[in-house]
Design brief:
Blueprint: E1 20-25, E2 28-33, E3 36-43, E4 48-51, H1 57-67, E5 75-79, H2 85-88, E6 98-102, H3 103-123, E7 142-144, E8 147-151, E9 158-163, E10 173-177, E11 182-186, H4 202-215, E12 220-223, E13 229-230, H5 232-258, H6 263-278, H7 284-299, H8 310-320
Parallel strand pairs: 4-5, 5-6, 6-7, 11-12
Antiparallel strand pairs: 1-2, 2-3, 3-4, 8-9, 9-10, 10-11, 12-13
Helix pairs in contact: 4-5, 5-6, 5-7, 6-7
Zinc ion (ZN) binds near residues 84, 168, 187 and 196.
């Protein structure tokens, strides 16, 4: 008997997902795709605010074609919740006047945008359909530190872009609609999809950052992946599940780290603790080696996450999942 090694990250995930456009409130749209990255759009009086850009312009156009069945207003603002390639490299398809992100996202693009592109393409090749259509790295036109508000015009209310603290990356922002009470949370919250924490700040994310997200009191939440959470109970459940995932990781990796164990021991203990609840969720096996490595670094006192490269991805994968 020989055991078969797990295929690297999501490289064996070649099955196209079913996309669903949901109208969450008047002029508020989300496209979910069975655990693939979610995107959204908010209709203003004369323009659209788009949230997330997908991995390539070809993939982004598939989303825009569906959005165009509901509104033909031009995309004035494109909001990027954070820098990850699968959410930003399709930006050119939107032809937006202003691309908005957090200050730290600009820093991360400059520091690691190219390496992240190669890393994510290797991990999730299916999401990079039409990669030749990417004109280069996506740069924001406008960045901010704490909060930025966009008036939607008419009686449509406003979009509040809010930084809630360090979390999934150093520069995540959420898009909050106070009038409609709808929250687009990016990868700070996942709804029945595994977390990716390879660039994360586990201690901050699992405490104050998620507290701030919860305090908004959303009644509908679009997470980074997974179904839309509708109703306060479902919203709180998604936030609580995200926190639980992080707390179990902190506990298990923390125990092995404190006891002088190995990274591999930490991976196995964390996998065993999380798998009964989360093992069947999208990208669980893919993410966990990178997650444990980053948390291990964090416990070692490495504050600023190390850069993932295609080579380092393989090394960590082979050490932990091989
Ligand atoms: Zn991400």
């Amino acid at each position: 008997m020989t055991s078969v090694a797990k295929p690297f990250a999501s490289s064996a995930d070649v099955q196209e997902k079913t996309e669903t456009l949901e109208v969450i409130a008047d002029g508020v749209y989300a496209l979910t795709a069975e655990g693939d990255p979610n995107v959204g759009a908010i209709e203003g009086e004369d323009f659209v605010v788009a949230f997330e850009a997908r991995a390539t312009p070809v993939m982004a156009r598939r989303w825009l074609d569906q959005l165009r069945e509901h509104t033909d207003k031009p995309v004035k603002y494109l909001v990027l919740s954070h820098y990850h390639a699968v959410r930003v490299l399709g930006a050119s398809a939107f032809d937006a006047d202003v691309v908005i992100a957090h200050d730290q996202t600009r820093r991360l693009i400059a520091e690691r945008g190219r390496a992240d592109w190669e890393s994510e393409r290797g991990r999730m090749p299916r999401l990079f359909t039409g990669e030749a259509s990417i004109p280069g790295l996506t740069w924001p036109d406008l960045t901010f530190t704490d909060q930025l508000t966009i008036d939607l015009g008419g009686d449509r209310g406003e979009v509040v872009l809010q930084y809630c603290g360090r979390g999934h990356t150093a520069g995540d922002i959420v898009l909050w609609l106070p009038r409609q009470r709808v929250l687009f949370a990016g990868d700070l919250v996942e709804a029945q999809a595994a977390l990716y924490t390879g660039d994360a700040f586990h201690a901050d994310w699992s405490t104050g950052t998620l507290d701030r997200v919860r305090e908004l009191g959303a009644e509908a939440l679009v997470g980074g992946r997974g179904a839309v959470a509708l109703g306060r109970a479902a919203v709180d459940a998604a936030i609580d599940q995200t926190r639980d995932f992080l707390l179990v990781m902190r506990e298990k990796v923390g125990e092995v780290h404190a006891a002088g164990g190995s990274l591999r021991d930490a991976f196995q203990a964390t996998h065993a603790a999380l798998a009964p609840r989360y093992g069947r969720w999208p990208i669980f096996e893919h993410c966990l080696p990178f997650n444990v490595q980053r948390l291990w670094d964090e416990l070692d006192g490495v504050d600023w996450p190390r850069v993932w490269t295609a080579e380092r991805d393989r090394e960590v994968w082979n050490e932990l999942q091989g």
